[in-house]
Amino acid sequence: MKISSSRSSSYEESDGHGEGSRLLQREPSRRTSREAFGLGARHVQLACMCGALTGLFLVRSSMGIAVLAMTDDERPDGPETYCWDKRTQGYILSSFFCGYAVMQVPGGLLAKRFGGKRVLLVALLVNAVLCICIPTVAYLGGWASVCMARFGMGLAQAVTFPSMHTMLGRWLPQHERTSYGGYVYAFPNLGIIISMPLAGVLSETVLGWKLIFYVSAAVLLAVAAAWARWAASCPAQHPLMTEAERMYIEKDMPYTCEEQPSVKVPWRYIVRCRGFWAILAAHQAFSISHIFFFVDMPTYLEKGLNISLQKSAWLSALPYVGMLLGSFFSAWLCGALLDRQLVSVKTCRRVFNSIGLYGTSVFLLLLVPARSSALAVGCLVALLTLQSFVSVGFVMNHLDLSPNFAGVMMSMSNAPANVCSFLTPLVASYVLRNDPTDLARWHVMFVAMAAWVAASNTAYLLQLRTDLQPWDDPEYVRREDKRREENEAVQAMLDE
């Protein structure tokens, strides 16, 4: 295994204070060259990643509209409908996130072991097949069968963000990760923007809600074909990669794709890292608030604000237009600030994450006195626009701490965050008591969520870290294990 001399010589003894004694620090991590290379194969790779995220989130988000159409018995000329109350709809919507949470850590390990291309290709194909099957399983097995299909889709999609983080760590030099990573993570919002109005339009056709699933499957199959042809797990495997661009990408990395060693995941060092727990605090707060609107916004608009199903589908997409634009703007602004070295990485993470989560809390509270539908929709647009700023906050924080294990860390924070996401629709259905027309009960959810999100972001700020961790080095665990064994042998000799 080849380890670059710049890396092996970049460790220094510290004063021994702080987290885990912090025996080693890597100074060159913040002195990475900021030279530009221009367009190349990495941009094709990033485009493929954007397309995959768009397709997967289109499928994920269309269910919020589809379940309303599947229970709408006011269209006698449409397909069969089902008598599923709000609680049953909550089970269907949350089943995806149950599978998604269960598979997070295994998904991160699969991405680390087999590379992002293969595991994401499987995710795309599995979701396409299950989309095709949902109308049939709903007819034959009822809501429980739909839950099982959605559970399977969640299992497959669990590899999405760990794979993306793993590939970002391999494909981008350190000074490009914040800006390009922010752009990539804007595209889930494009999937949501497309899916909600599209699902509303498709639900009004002769095939009705069934066409939502068939069209979603067709989109995924097209994305899977492009992914299989043009994506790669690392630069060396891409058909368009030039030697000059590959050297530009890999010059500050400890090893190339071919040289990547088989190393242990430093589990105990990750869970001892205060920075990881800071990320987890912010991650679960974002997931709870985001998933709440992700699955329940169409219901809130249609039942709570008395907006028609097709119109609510269009309005449900509007806040995600703001989120898409906010993601692009925050990625550009944060990247510009860092490139000009006007602020530190830590300051950027702190400020942008606070705009995202404290902003979410403020507009959740403003939804309570909002009496008109226009004002409520305006608050939702502002809320999700500001929430998008976390894409250059805690979302990129994994890569600050450890580019080599960012995918695994993403899976470790995403798993508990999505357990909370799984519970959110169930809690909402319990609070609403099967009466989504009662605005007072929606307001209880808004206030409780605002308090939780604000408290979680405060915890993030108190524990935030952005320094590259010594255990990011593939050889760190082996060296520490050897050192511990030597110390134990010495101690045993002294005891004798």
TrEMBL record:
Compositionally biased region (Low complexity): 1-11
Source superkingdom: Eukaryota
Pfam family, one: MFS_1
Location of the region described as Disordered in the Swiss-Prot/TrEMBL record: 1-30
Alphabetic keyword roster: Membrane, Transmembrane, Transmembrane helix
Residues in Major facilitator superfamily (MFS) profile domain copies: 48-467
Compositional bias annotation for Basic and acidic residues: 14-30
Chief location bin: membrane
SUPFAM superfamilies reported in the protein's UniProt record: MFS general substrate transporter
Annotated InterPro entries: MFS, MFS_dom, MFS_Na/Anion_cotransporter, MFS_trans_sf
Transmembrane stretches, start-end: 46-70, 90-111, 118-142, 148-168, 180-199, 211-232, 276-295, 315-338, 350-368, 374-395, 415-432, 444-462
Membrane topology, as annotated: Multi-pass membrane protein
Cell location: Membrane
Protein name: Major facilitator superfamily (MFS) profile domain-containing protein
